């Protein structure tokens, strides 16, 4: 039996120890935020704490003095006026200072919130790419944001302040009440026990609601964003999908409301019980106090102050226990934020020696399937791309071409095999350095509501203008901005500037290509680089392509096989495998090959 008890004790102690470590970590986290952003917050907290302690004593003793003076046989009107003025002025200054401090703390909290938002965004930016479409991770992200902004710095330290102020007030108030009646104090204790039990149940209900609502809230946010998004606005309007999106949005809103209503009903059920018990106990306390004044055991002033003290004592004891419970709940909520911020660990790995165009790429027995799927998209892919080679990747839709590029970009990790750069696995290199090797333009490239200059170099540093303009000349987009008064400083789109310009699909693609060229990376990857270009622009681009990628390793994905003639090597994909590779002439000799068939079919359309 003793061993059995010891085991249970150890389990409990271990749970407490783990809990304390989490709490310590969260307090340290919040403390670091406060020290970095606004140390003065602690001073405001202390001042607010002192005012919170002073306020009930002003009310208790001020009321007693006033009532005793009014009831006194030798009452003095001047003294009554002085007491009234003292109470009014004291309460006024306490209220005024409290509001000033509250506003000052609000400014500090805004700084804390901005810092946390940046930290969450920073973590989101460096998540593994595959995690950006993982529902589990996205739920964690949503819980991290909602968790912090539901709790925040104030959600922890304000409750700590409440615990401290209540702990200071309780002994004095307990003494005052106990002096007159032990039974009143006993009723206070019963009231507190009931309140703690019910508040504990309410907190569990709230946390359950928080967890259950996260996926639904994320879905609601998704549809809300798409409804107001310019990017998706064309499709929604042209296909008359507005009602569909609104209905989807409304359905998720109804689900959230239903969850909230069920939670509120459950809480209200417990709160009604607490209120009933609490008011019965309060009635008993007042009855006892009334009995003492009827029996003339206390003065009218003492009676008044005793009623206030009883109410304040009830509130303070409930406050201290409820604050501790709420702190525990808030620590649980805030832990979602801390865990998410710990989600990304950027390990220091081997640095890449930067020598322009000195990078060979090798896929060695690579197999890959997307997360949570069963079918392999790439199957035993083996290929080597030499430094400075110009390579085209071709194949039918769904053959695995874009997936090949995504793996090279480290968006996903291979399931089997390995990808090597200069003979070393790409996972051995530090991400921040590895991505500097790659300049990529995907089919679904994005142009942002910045200036053209900022879209290309992602910087407001004007000293880079020559390099940016040179990249624009190579991509052919310079002619567009040369005609505009503000040149490359022209804002794109009208989201933030009514004078912003709209780009055609071809112009936007040229900006994306200029972005890739400006980066001046040794490996250039273009996924359908001419998809949005007209035939003349396409011909001009291919004339410049060798100049643009001179000395670099260049990889193209293209459905227009005529563009592959200038490449050193063409890699043909089919059903996730490399089925052929060679120059254009070599592949055209194989009249039974996929490349030959595709080229002949396309040639017929151009005749």
Notes on the protein architecture:
This protein is an alpha/beta fold and 607 residues long. It folds into three domains: 25-341, Up-down Bundle (ABC transporter transmembrane region fold); 361-445 and 522-606, P-loop containing nucleotide triphosphate hydrolases (Rossmann fold), CATH 3.40.50.300; 448-502, no CATH class. The chain has 17 helices and ten strands. It has helices at residues 2-37, 40-71, 77-125, 135-180, 182-228, 230-238, 242-294, 300-341, 401-408, 431-434, 452-457, 465-475, 478-482, 505-519, 535-548, 584-589, 594-606, and strands at residues 361-368, 378-385, 390-395, 416-421, 424-425, 438-441, 523-527, 553-557, 569-574, 577-582. The strands form two sheets. It has a six-stranded mixed sheet, sandwiched between helices. Helix 15 (535-548) links the parallel strand 7 (523-527) and strand 8. Helix 1 (2-37) packs across helix 8, helix 5 (182-228) runs parallel beside helix 8 and helix 12 crosses helix 14. The longest helix is centred in the middle third of the chain and has 53 residues, at 242-294. The chain is elongated and about 120 Å long. The termini are far apart.
């Amino acid at each position: 039996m003793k061993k059995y008890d010891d085991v249970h004790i150890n389990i409990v102690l271990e749970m407490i120890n783990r809990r304390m470590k989490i709490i310590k970590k969260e307090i340290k986290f919040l403390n670091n935020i406060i020290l970095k952003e606004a140390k003065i917050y602690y001073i405001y907290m202390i001042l607010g704490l002192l005012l919170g302690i002073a306020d009930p004593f002003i009310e208790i003793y001020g009321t007693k003095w006033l009532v005793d003076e009014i009831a006194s046989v030798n009452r003095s009107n001047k003294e009554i006026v002085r007491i009234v003025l003292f109470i009014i002025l004291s309460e006024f200054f306490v209220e005024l200072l409290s509001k000033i401090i509250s506003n000052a703390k609000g400014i500090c909290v805004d700084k804390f919130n901005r810092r946390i938002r940046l930290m969450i965004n920073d973590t989101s930016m460096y998540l593994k790419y595959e995690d950006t479409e993982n529902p589990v991770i996205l739920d964690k992200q949503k819980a991290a944001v909602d968790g912090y902004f539901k709790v925040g710095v104030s959600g922890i330290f304000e409750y700590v302040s409440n615990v401290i102020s209540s702990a200071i007030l309780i002994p004095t108030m307990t003494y005052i009440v106990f002096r007159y009646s032990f039974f009143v104090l006993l009723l206070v204790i019963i009231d507190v026990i009931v309140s703690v039990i019910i508040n504990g149940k309410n907190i569990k209900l709230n946390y359950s609601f928080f967890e259950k609502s996260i996926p639904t809230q994320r879905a609601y946010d998704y549809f809300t964003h798409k409804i107001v998004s310019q990017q998706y606005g064309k499709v929604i309007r042209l296909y008359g999908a507005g009602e569909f999106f609104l209905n989807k949005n409304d359905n998720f809103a109804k689900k959230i409301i239903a969850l909230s209503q069920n939670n509120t009903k459950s809480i209200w059920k417990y709160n009604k019980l607490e209120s009933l018990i609490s008011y019965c106990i309060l009635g008993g306390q007042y009855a006892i106090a009334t009995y003492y004044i009827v029996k003339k055991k206390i003065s009218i002033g003492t009676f008044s102050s005793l009623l206030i003290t009883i109410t304040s004592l009830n509130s303070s004891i409930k406050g201290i226990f409820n604050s501790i419970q709420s702190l525990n709940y808030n620590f649980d909520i805030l832990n979602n934020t801390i865990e998410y911020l710990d989600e990304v660990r950027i390990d220091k790995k081997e640095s890449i020696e930067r020598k322009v165009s000195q990078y060979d790429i090798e896929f060695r027995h690579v197999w890959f399937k997307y997360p949570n799927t069963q079918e392999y998209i790439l199957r035993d892919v083996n290929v080597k791309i030499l430094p400075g080679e110009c390579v085209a990747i071709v194949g039918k839709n769904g053959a695995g071409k874009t997936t090949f590029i995504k793996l090279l970009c480290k968006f996903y990790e291979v399931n089997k095999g390995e990808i090597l750069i200069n003979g070393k696995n790409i996972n051995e290199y530090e991400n921040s350095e590895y991505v500097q090797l790659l300049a990529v333009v995907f089919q679904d490239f994005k142009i942002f509501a910045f200036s053209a200059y900022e879209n290309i170099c992602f910087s407001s540093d004007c000293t880079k203008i020559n390099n940016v303009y040179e990249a624009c000349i190579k991509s052919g987009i310079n002619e567009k901005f040369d005609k505009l008064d503000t040149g490359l400083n022209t804002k794109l789109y009208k989201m933030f500037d009514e004078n912003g310009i709209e780009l055609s699909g071809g112009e936007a693609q040229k900006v994306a290509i200029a972005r890739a060229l400006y980066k001046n990376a040794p490996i250039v990857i273009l996924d359908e680089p001419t998809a949005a270009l007209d035939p003349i622009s396409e011909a001009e681009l291919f004339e410049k392509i060798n100049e643009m990628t001179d000395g670099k390793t260049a990889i193209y994905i293209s459905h227009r096989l005529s563009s592959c003639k200038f490449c050193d090597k063409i890699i043909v994909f089919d059903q996730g495998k490399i089925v052929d590779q060679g120059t254009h002439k070599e592949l055209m000799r194989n009249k039974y090959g996929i490349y030959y068939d595709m080229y002949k079919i396309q040639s017929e359309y151009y005749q």
